[in-house]
Design brief:
Layout lengths: L16 E5 L5 H12 L3 E5 L5 E3 L6 E4 L2 E2 L5 E4 L7 H16 L4 E2 L2 H7 L2 H10 L7 E4 L2 H10 L4 E4 L10 E3 L2 H13 L4 E5 L6 E8 L2 E8 L13 E5 L3 H14 L3 E7 L22 E6 L5 H4 L6 H13 L11 E4 L8 E4 L17
Parallel strand pairs: 1-2, 1-6, 6-7
Antiparallel strand pairs: 3-4, 4-5, 8-11, 9-10, 9-11, 12-13, 12-15, 13-14, 15-16, 17-18
Helix pairs in contact: 1-9, 2-3, 5-6
């Protein structure tokens, strides 16, 4: 059991209590709750809908159904439910306000804003020089159809928000594309159109947990999507140094503490928007298709010997005891090795950190 201690860098003492925002039922919630108990912590849940803030003559006081956010060692952000633009904006604004007062939020609200948006994450990945699928994000049927044609009439259409493969479809019929884009336009949706990258149904998920990067190979022989819930199977895989470096660099760029980076397979002759000779490492055999800020791990846990929920809770505890909102650059990044109880460690020497001064939870 990890002992409780005071953070030497702040005046805030640890309480042994962690808060998780999101659903309090289900496999993932049970896994995190049990892991916290084993590590001597109490993990309580509260819905995002219960967040509220009061501002008088001092800092904003952010509370939820479980109490004041400043009364917890850290806040874990799990799946945020759908809401209106006002509701989503307010929930994130309250997390920003709490963070400025020293509340440890994992992942930070700015990271959530980026990770929830497929366009924003893909733009960051491309700016770092990694290969991505050719992608057009439009707001009209006309522009989406133009992208469909330019991509050879074989595309993947997906919601710009969302996960677990829901709402994702492959379209290679122009009439069906016309009807699909018309419907999305009428609904006021953004049209996210990606060129299909064959062969489909194969990818590598790099699960980032603090200082660790764990590789999971996912294969679905019956569908182009690789979600385990959709029939894919996962096996542990040892990641190459290039893959580890990619996961580390992308995570650092987004201040991602717990998340995942998905790299889909592509045939040797396939190119992509970023495949212009300037990408950072030719050893990455695939294209980065997605970065997740709230990844599921049920499928991954089924093929791994390590306890992922416990690894995540340890990461949260370590982050709460640190003055940083991001893992230290001096830590090792672990890869899967079945001959060494699941881990080997490779030192990260060029990772960046996001050190910055913060206020702390002190109220009068």
């Amino acid at each position: 059991m990890t002992p409780l201690h005071s953070d030497p860098h702040t005046s805030k003492k640890t309480t042994g209590r962690l808060l998780a925002l999101g659903p309090d039922e289900g496999w993932h919630a049970d896994q995190l709750r049990s892991a916290a108990t084993r590590l001597g912590r109490e993990l309580v849940y509260a819905p995002y809908e219960s967040l509220q803030s009061t501002i008088t003559n001092g800092p904003a006081i952010t509370t939820c159904a479980a109490g004041d956010l400043c009364d917890f060692d850290a806040v874990i952000c799990r799946t945020m439910p759908a809401g209106t633009l006002e509701q989503i904006t307010f929930r994130l604004a309250t997390l920003h306000a709490a963070q400025t007062q020293g509340v440890r939020i994992i992942n930070p609200p700015r990271t959530l804003e980026l990770a929830i948006d497929k366009y924003a994450t893909l733009a960051i990945v491309a700016s770092l020089g990694y290969r991505i699928p050719d992608t057009t994000v439009a707001q009209s049927r006309k522009d989406a159809l133009s992208a469909f044609d330019s991509f050879g009439g074989d595309v993947v259409v997906k919601p710009i928000f969302g996960g677990e493969g829901r709402g994702v479809m492959r379209i290679h019929d122009r009439q069906l594309a016309w009807y699909t884009f018309s419907t999305l336009e009428q609904l006021g949706a953004v049209l996210y159109v990606q060129k299909f990258v064959p062969p489909g149904g194969r990818d590598t998920r790099m699960l980032v947990i603090g200082d660790s990067v764990i590789g999971i190979r996912r294969v679905n022989p019956n569908d182009f999507r690789t979600n385990v819930a959709g029939g894919a199977t996962g096996t542990p895989v040892e990641l190459s140094p290039a893959m580890i470096a990619a996961a580390r660099r992308i995570a650092n760029a987004m201040s991602l503490v717990i998340g995942s980076v998905d790299v889909i397979d592509c045939l040797p002759q396939q190119s992509s928007t970023s495949d212009n000779g300037d990408h950072v490492d030719n050893e990455i055999k695939g294209v980065v298709v997605e970065v997740n800020g709230v990844p599921g791990w049920k499928g991954a846990q089924g093929c791994l010997d390590i306890d992922l929920a416990e690894t995540m809770i340890r990461c949260v505890i370590d982050s709460a005891a640190s003055t940083k909102q991001h893992p230290s650059s001096s830590a090792g990044w672990a890869t899967w090795d079945s001959t060494n109880n699941g881990h080997t460690t490779q030192t990260a020497t060029d990772a960046t950190t996001t050190d910055r001064p913060e206020q702390h939870c002190e109220r009068t």
